[in-house]
Design brief:
Its main location: cytoplasm. By secondary structure, the protein is mainly alpha-helical. Helix content is 53%, strand content 7%.
């Protein structure tokens, strides 16, 4: 797929593959499909028609205050100011800025949600947000400040504030004012109409994009971990019986069967009759033998969460929702990001378990009593420490991930003077995933390096062609560990390789 290609947004029809390609910068231009304009215009008219009635009823966020101030009626002459003030007051985010690719994904998901025509936001406003993104002016969105209900209010305020000439954008890592960006993109700043500010701010798009980013990275780590696990079985003369499909069919979990088949595929040419193979062993430790059970459970959760996040990325999550066909405005709670919070919490556990299993295999390889190889995978041990502290690094990262795996969704805290008395914490839950997946990728990198080293130390190892291919890829990046050297750069190279290359190519 060409980076020069255009992506046309069809609201409600974003696929997981679309979202992945958007985040990974596969498109250079975005536009909203013309068919959605009819539904968007009808939704805007529904708001306008509200004021043509003889007695204008109170509609939350249209002619009332917000949150605890929902019962405060606002004069019609102040309705545009109300929406402007809402965006201004909600720009309270703090911390480091979200990366540009993530901001792009948030913007596209937001446009897709509002583009379904239930939000009362003008087509031209959505086009202008896309115009900024197309010119690579990315609104500056601080990382922290959302509790995941009533939507991602603060970060979404930072996303849309440039459209009213407020705040900052980033282009080529340079931060400039929103006014400068609008001028360079030939965009007139907007005076928000009734409901527009609220619809722009309500929603789960930041939480969802953060969770999607975590999902995409964890999927890469998962595939690398399967390959690393198979390579470790090879390096440690592990038994193949645990990957026999008959075992896994009897249990019936799809992920377990898939993982067993993938590992068996990687090892399918292994010489089971070699003299030293499985010498004296009846069973292998769990970290080798139970990979289908543990990684299969992880895969089932990853696939389930992918489905949840795909649904959420296409959802209408603002409040109130404008139903133009029945001329209604219905207040609800679609902005509550509990589905995203649960998904992110489970992904955190999955990410932690992938690394935990990998670290145990590293430990087996550096233990000469188990592996039969030189202590800590280096010749002249004692003078050389070899992989001793690389395993310590892996242990440290695994421990950090464990401590970050506590579910955020159970940590609700009331806001808005107890009007919003239960929140999801989805944004916090999802934001940790990227760093956790980085931690896990370093652990997998250390395992890949350990397994390659173990193979070299076996002197003329026999392996399947697929494992040899993995081994050669690692050796193309990092040479054999002959004696102690500065090792951090080697780990970094293989970690980057995990995210830059598809490990699916090895099957």
């Amino acid at each position: 797929m060409s980076h020069n290609s255009e992506f046309i947004i069809h609201p409600g029809k974003l696929s997981l593959n679309d979202l992945n390609n958007i985040y990974k910068n596969k498109f250079s231009k975005f536009s909203l499909n013309k068919e959605s304009k009819y539904f968007i215009d009808a939704s805007v008219k529904n708001v306008q028609d509200l004021f043509s009635q003889k007695e204008v009823k109170a509609v939350y966020g249209v002619n009332t205050g917000f949150g605890k101030l929902a019962n405060t009626r606002i004069q019609e002459s102040d309705l545009s100011i109300l929406q402007h003030n809402l965006v201004m007051s909600h720009c309270t985010g703090v911390g480091n800025l979200l990366d540009n690719n993530l901001v792009k994904l948030i913007a596209i998901i937001k446009v897709a949600s509002l583009g379904r025509g239930y939000s009362g936001v003008r087509y031209e406003l959505l086009e202008s947000l896309l115009n900024l993104i197309n010119h690579e002016y990315y609104p500056c969105i601080p990382t922290k400040g959302s509790v995941g209900a009533s939507g991602d209010l603060a970060p979404l305020a930072h996303l849309v504030s440039p459209l009213i000439g407020v705040g900052y954008v980033r282009k080529n890592d340079q931060v400039i004012t929103a006014i400068e960006a609008l001028k360079e993109c030939n965009i007139e700043k907007f005076e928000l109409q009734p409901l527009e500010g609220l619809s722009l701010l309500n929603g789960t798009q930041v939480s969802t994009a953060l969770a999607l980013k975590g999902l995409f990275k964890i999927q890469d780590v998962f595939e690398a971990a399967l390959v690393a696990g198979a390579m470790s079985v090879e390096a440690l003369n592990g038994k193949l019986e645990p990957f026999d499909s008959r075992i896994h069919e009897l249990r019936g979990h799809k992920g377990q069967m898939v993982v067993a088949e993938k590992i068996k595929c990687l090892l399918n040419e292994k010489n089971q009759s070699s003299e030293d193979h499985n010498s004296g062993k009846v069973q292998d430790p769990y970290s080798l033998r139970c990979q289908p059970q543990v990684m299969g459970a992880c895969l089932d959760q990853i696939n389930s969460i992918a489905n949840i996040l795909e649904i959420e990325a296409n959802a209408v999550t603002n409040n109130p929702i404008s139903f133009s066909d029945t001329k209604e405005f219905i207040s609800g709670g679609n902005f509550h990001a509990e589905p995203v919070a649960f998904a992110a919490d489970i992904l955190a556990i999955v990410c932690s378990e992938i690394a935990s299993l990998s670290e145990r295999r590293i430990s087996l390889m550096v233990d000469s009593n188990f592996s039969g190889l030189p202590p800590f995978l280096v010749n002249n041990s004692g003078l050389n420490s070899g992989f001793m502290i690389a395993q310590v690094t892996a242990a440290a990262l695994v421990s950090e991930n464990k401590s970050r795996s506590f579910p955020c969704s159970v940590d609700s805290i009331p806001t808005s003077a107890n009007q919003e008395d239960h929140v999801s914490m989805a944004t916090h839950a999802a934001n940790r995933l990227s760093e956790m997946s980085d931690n896990s990728s370093y652990v997998i990198a250390i395992e890949l390096l350990s397994a390659a080293q173990a193979m070299d130390l076996k002197n003329g190892f026999q392996a399947s062609n697929k494992i040899k291919k993995v081994y050669q890829e690692i050796r193309n990046l990092v040479p054999f560990y002959e004696k102690d050297r500065y090792f951090a750069d080697d780990i970094e190279k293989v970690k980057n390789y995990i995210f830059q290359n598809s490990f699916l190519n090895f099957y």
